[in-house]
Amino acid sequence: MLGLRPTVAEPVGRADGPLTAREGARAAEAELGRVLDDVLGRAREADPVFARDIADRVASLVLRGGKRLRTAFAWCGWRAAGGTGDATPVLRTGAALELVQACALIHDDLMDGSPLRRGAPAVHVDLARMHETARMTGSPETFATSAAVLAGDLALAWADDLMTETVLGSPHGPQLHREWQAMRTEMVAGQYRDIHAQATGASGVDEAVTIATLKSALYTVERPLALGASLAGADATVLDALRSAGRCAGLAFQLRDDILGAFGDPAETGKSSEDDLRTRKLTYLLAVGSRLAEASGDREAADVLAPGAPSVSDDAVRRMRAALERTGARAVVESKVTELAATSLRHFDRTGAEPSVRREFAALVGRASGMAPHRTGEAA
């Protein structure tokens, strides 16, 4: 795999006794490495140039960090539903989720024109540089756009292939497949609503919540939890509790991401903290800021936060940040994150999961929402 695969411990194949979250994470990372070895081998058999330029870049993005939250939530859903024995199906489901995430990141960065991802050039930026270095003919941007679309498509194809194998090998395949189908459609719908909102100048809070739910909350937490639980044959009561817990935790995750998108440190987040503001992306943070500015009569804040043509001015970005602070929007969103995280834990308790699993879920919600576990109502 050209040195791309990380050094990891050998996988834990069975969960006859309860595995720790750390053991599960090591096993999932090992499975992801094996999956990538396999798909890269098939890519090279198909065509070496395609494998070098596209497939290797997709694999590099997948292995270049990321919180692996979707994998962790799938694992937690499996445990909550009483999953034991052979852990391979849930580990492979986690690998498929990481590949879907790669597809979403590649396409999202391309559509948003984001230059950075996970501390390195975004895939379309890297491809444009490759075009220039190789002295190809034509426009580097046109080439990079087309190639990045293919890279995202490849990641999704790999994910679908992997999930098809898992579904066919599971006694709970139909339910697993329904969850996967729904997740893919919701992900695309959320991305479309995102660009639709920018094109129409939408600014409403309800619209922002719809986008956050479709684009992030469902496929980051709710569906991974349900996928893991489905592999364990969860009943309707457990699935309902997990869906409610996942939606709240997923929204908390996206709202935290909105805050980081405006105020985060790129050295820590691995992405720009100005893209959302420069493009006036309709985040919950921006929608709340606009509403509070109008309600308080703060015309300066209302004008700078209003939907309109993207601003490339550093001064405009600075004034937008100041307006979000001055109107209290940042504080409101911080409070909402805390509320959603706590509500998520209450829903999760309805699954009847063992205390160790509840603690594991609380820790995951803490990571996703950017809060210490005790702030979500659970002991560390």
In words, what does this structure look like?
Its cofactor is Mg(2+). Belongs to the FPP/GGPP synthase family. This is Polyprenyl synthetase family protein. Keywords: Isoprene biosynthesis, Magnesium, Metal-binding, Transferase. The chain has 16 helices and two strands. The chain has 380 residues and is mainly alpha-helical. It has one domain: Farnesyl Diphosphate Synthase. A two-stranded antiparallel sheet has the order 1-2. A hairpin with a 2-residue loop joins strand 1 (116-117) and strand 2. The longest helix has 29 residues, at 140-168.
Write the layout of secondary structure elements.
Layout: H1 21-46, H2 48-63, H3 69-80, H4 88-112, E1 116-117, E2 120-121, H5 123-133, H6 140-168, H7 173-200, H8 205-231, H9 236-263, H10 266-269, H11 275-278, H12 284-296, H13 299-305, H14 314-326, H15 329-349, H16 355-369
Helix pairs in contact: 1-2, 1-4, 2-6, 3-4, 3-8, 3-16, 4-6, 4-7, 4-8, 5-6, 6-7, 7-8, 8-9, 8-12, 9-15, 12-13, 12-15, 13-14, 15-16
Quick overview of this protein structure:
This protein is an all-alpha fold. It is built from 16 helices and two strands. The chain has a single domain (21-376), classed as Farnesyl Diphosphate Synthase (Orthogonal Bundle), CATH 1.10.600.
